Amino acid sequence: MKLSGHMKADLLLVGVTLLAALGWMFSKEALVGIPPLLFIGIRFLLAGLILFPFGRGKLLQLDRQGWLFSIGVGLSFSLGIMFWIMGLHYASHIGVGAFLTSLGVVLVPVLALLFGDRPGRSVWAALPLAALGMASLSLDSELVIGQGELFFLISAVAFALFYNLNSRAASRISVIALSVIQLIVVGLVALMISALTETWQFELSLELLGWLLASVLIATSVRFFIQTWAQGMAPVSHTAVIMTLEPVWTALLAIWWFSETMTIMQLLGCSLIFSALLVNRWPALMLWMKGSYSSVKGKE
Question: How far is CA 185 from CA 46, 53, 295, in A?
């Protein structure tokens, strides 16, 4: 059976969400031996340099304004990533952390108000669900909302800002060029801050090197390359819906990888947050379902 372009793109995007979830596992393993900001700096700088040859042509076509805009978006990405890696470093529960970080998607339309956008009704319907999810997690007696969870929440706000800026940049700048600049900017910023705040003393064993390379090559370079490729074939609505799978994969992998468990309240909280993601993406979800149905009907 020959897959349509949209179906192939959807499958690739599902794969991207799985690679992103694997990135949580690889990173957590690497953090056992490498300071968090140093790790994320190395990871993103190397990944950006690996992707550089693929985006070189597009990078040369960028004018001064395009470079400045891309660097600015990269700085906002740096903020989100650095808070995220600190959250992962201190996290007591990776699965819950993934859903807390995913709140950034729900906050995107809210922060879009700063740019003059008007969120639709689905956004306001999603916010109470997200709030109930947070309440369920905070009321759970077995989950301590500590430093790691607070870092995840701050990263969610930073990612919401980044998503707003990135969507505006992607409409005028090549996605591959934008990705390369963002990765390199994150790497340089994290390394500079790491040099000021962390002690660079660690033993680079073969196991640690393996987790670092897996994070660089699989969870970052390959992931961003496939994501860029798939986004070029898929409608925006498909991307918006499928990318919400990342926290689900992350939670499932954490159960298998680190033997994490979830209490009833944690499951309820994460389910409410995931429901908020779907409600937030409701218009895109309807377009995706309509497109999938039309594709099936066309083959009958």
Answer: 11, 16, 40
Task: Give the domain range for residue 10.
Answer: 5-299
Mean pLDDT of 28-53: 95
Are the C-beta atoms of residues 255 and 261 closer than 8 Å to each other? Answer: yes
Mean local confidence (pLDDT), 65-76: 93
Tell me the pLDDT tens digit for each residue of 112-133: 888 887 777 787 888 899 999 9
Structural domains in the chain (count)? 1
DSSP string for residues in the chain:
-PPPHHHHHHHHHHHHHHHHHHHHHHHHHHTTTS-HHHHHHHHHHHHHHHHHHHHHHHHHH--HHHHHHHHHHHHHHHHHHHHHHHHHHH-S-HHHHHHHHTHHHHHHHHHGGGGT----HHHHHHHHHHHHHHHHHHH-TT----HHHHHHHHHHHHHHHHHHHHHHHHTTS-HHHHHHHHHHHHHHHHHHHHHHHS-------HHHHHHHHIIIIIIIIIHHHHHHHHHTTS-HHHHHHHGGGHHHHHHHHHHHHS-----HHHHHHHHHHHHHHHHHTHHHHHHHHHHHHHHHHHH-
Given this model, what pLDDT does residue 296 score?
41
